[in-house]
Design a protein that fits this description.
seven-stranded parallel β-sheet; binds flavin-adenine dinucleotide; 10 helices; single chain; five-stranded parallel β-sheet
């Protein structure tokens, strides 16, 4: 389809209680400058139920306009209702581009929307820009197993759609502002919704590993040598009030659950402090943590690539270094 406006849309996904999930608010940050470069407005699109808080948050984090579809059929994410509503909105307003958080729901909805609209989608972008020459969105994502970064343009079809994982961008500080609120009544008949939520079972393990919002992360890799090797990693994490992360090698070895994985196929994190223990620094791991403010690497191999991006490097055996660090942290806290 043709774009009817130069607006950039951000899908602000809501949680079960109707509040905005962080990733949508994070995407308003790059969205703001991209919309300005495109010469349009930044529009947050919210589909859910009891969404007042989410609407306020979108406005506070930079949206010029908020389009809201609120109704009981949207209380829990379901593919049919959300896709029908989103496609109807796009057909009515015709944005030129759209950002969607690469959550499980975003990853389910965005490709279906793009397919129905016969347009392109670039998944799991790690950088966004506007291509100066063509004015198209320049979507950058890892390609060929993460060994190179590809920048993709969608020159012919609209809207241009991309997904971005949580944690890649940072939320702006909230400011009091009054976005224009547009309420759309889109009711999806029950017979068009082919799935029904019968029960919600919370994954307690996932919930306790909040890597995306952690301020400090201590991660262990293959260098910890086994599940018991995470003990000194956890001890330092406890002393620092940090969350425990892991490389894929440690997860694939079954030493720690997948919810802890950082990297291209794990979580993207941006803590104030990231301590990598026995992690070599493969590009797929770096893809998930290089946005950390300060990186400390502990590795016994002085040539390990992790030292290329580390702010502080300790060449040594993690089983000797970690207990000393933990003791020092506990001592400093006691003082
Ligand atoms: P290794 O590369 O084996 O490194 C272990 C390090 O520990 C070495 O540098 C060694 O010197 C050090 N060491 C050993 N013993 C000690 C000790 N006692 N003290 C101190 N240091 C020690 N990886 C991820 O992490 N996250 C991802 O999301 C991810 N996604 C991927 C997606 C694709 C498509 C592919 C192809 C790969 C992906 N990988 C990912 C895997 C990635 O390529 C690496 O294989 C992985 O990151 C290596 O993990 P590691 O650094 O723990 O292990």
């Amino acid at each position: 389809m043709e774009a009817k406006t130069k607006d950039l849309w951000v899908f602000v996904e809501t949680a079960e209680d109707g509040s905005a999930k962080n990733v949508g608010l994070e995407l308003l940050t790059p969205g703001k400058s991209m919309a300005a470069q495109q010469g349009g407005d930044l529009v947050a699109v919210i589909i859910g139920h009891h969404t007042d808080e989410a609407v306020k948050a979108a406005s506070q984090h930079g949206a010029d306009k908020v389009i809201v579809v609120d109704g009981p059929e949207y209380a829990h994410y379901n593919t049919d209702a959300y896709v029908i509503a989103m496609v109807a909105l796009v057909e009515k307003y015709g944005p030129t581009s759209m950002l969607v958080g690469a959550t499980s729901n975003g990853r389910d909805m965005a490709p279906r929307v793009s397919c129905r609209l016969k347009t392109g989608l670039t998944a799991d972008c790690t950088a966004l820009a506007i291509d100066e020459e063509s004015g198209n969105v320049a979507w950058t994502r890892p390609a060929f197993g993460g060994n190179l970064m590809a920048t993709i343009l969608c020159p012919d079809r609209r809207p241009q759609i991309g997904t971005v994982r949580p944690g890649v961008f940072k939320k702006s500080a909230p400011v009091d502002s009054a976005a224009e609120i547009i309420r759309e009544d889109i009711h999806v008949p029950a017979d068009q919704i082919r799935t029904q939520v019968l029960e919600i079972i919370h994954n307690l393990q996932e919930e306790t590993v909040d890597l995306e919002n952690a301020e400090i992360i201590v991660s262990g890799g293959r260098g910890v040598g086994g599940p018991e090797g995470f003990a000194p990693v956890r001890a330092l994490a406890n002393a620092l009030g940090a969350t425990v992360g892991a490389s894929r090698a440690a997860v694939d070895s079954g030493w720690i659950p997948a919810a802890h994985q950082v990297g291209q196929t794990g979580k993207t994190v941006a803590p104030k402090l990231y301590i990598a223990c026995g992690i070599s620094g493969a590009i797929q791991h770096l893809a998930g943590m290089s946005g950390s403010d300060v990186i400390v690497a502990i590795n016994k191999d002085p040539e390990a690539p992790i030292f290329d991006i580390a702010d502080y490097g300790i060449v040594g055996d993690l089983f000797e270094v970690l207990p000393v660090l933990t003791e020092e942290v506990l001592k400093a806290k006691a003082e």
